[in-house]
Amino acid sequence: MGYQLFSVNEEMNKNPLGTLTALKKMGYQDFEIFGFDDEKDSYYGIKSAAFKKMLDDLNVSATSGHYSFAPYLDKSDDDLRRFVDRCITGAKNLDSKYITWPWIAPEQRTIDNFKLMALKLNKIGEQITKAGLGFAYHNHGFEFESHGDANGFSIITSETDPALVKLEMDMYWVMNSSKYTPGELIDAQPGRYVMWHIKDMDKKTRDYTELGNGSINYLTLLPDPVKSGLQYYYLEQGGNFAVNSMTSAAESAQYFKRNLQKYL
Length: 264
Description:
Keywords: Isomerase. The protein has helices at residues 9-14, 16-26, 48-58, 77-93, 111-130, 152-158, 171-177, 182-188, 218-221, 225-228, 245-259; strands spanning 2-4, 30-34, 36-37, 42-43, 46-47, 61-66, 98-101, 134-138, 146-147, 150-151, 166-170, 193-198, 200-201, 208-209, 232-235. The chain has 264 residues and is α/β, with parallel strands linked by helices. The chain has a single domain (2-263), classed as TIM Barrel. The protein has an eight-stranded parallel barrel with strand order 1-2-6-7-8-11-12-15, surrounded by five helices. A three-stranded antiparallel beta sheet has the order 3-4-5. The protein has a two-stranded antiparallel ribbon with strand order 9-10. Helix 4 links the parallel strand 6 (61-66) and strand 7 (98-101). Helix 2 (16-26) runs parallel beside helix 11 (245-259) and helix 5 runs parallel beside helix 6 (152-158). The longest helix is centred in the middle third of the chain and has 20 residues, at 111-130. It is globular, with a radius of gyration of 18 Å.
């Protein structure tokens, strides 16, 4: 059972060992990291090798990470290549399997930039694949916004090489912002969705909420993991906590283990 650590980012930056220890007690065994300092080769202020030892001591893993590619969208290929090399070093030090591009800034969300990003994704994917790791793109909702006859998601999925650029489906954002279900997206790109984010949507505000507390009925919505190509999944809640982020992590873990884990 995986957890995206952006959900507890403040706690991780204050006390990574204590936070990971508490998450493990809730039943989480695998994590997706957020916040790599490429200049210092560190996660949460800890050198990558030392952070890996912390994971090993707890007998947990970090199979993917979200890395800050957005600032490199309009930088040179050489700058991007150097950054990717540092990400590869960090990810290999953690024994991660995937490096993931998670986001672009609001001012970057134009059709021309989505086309540019598709080119960059292919280049990054080739570099990372040659290094023996996997590369994926994680969707939010903005990719589904229409720009005339196109949208960012259609450009990303049609203009990138499926062998080099895998997909991490955020099911909350698919349900929040697209006209598709997760299953329909997988039908169009079978085998490409190697990772999932599983989180719920508040029934009134449509914000995040604890798993099982919202409007997304995963009992009927969870797609076929084999058809998806699923390798790893991460529960997540980026905010709107009923009490606090750690309580929400515990409540989501309980719901998932009770109702959904058997399907994965």
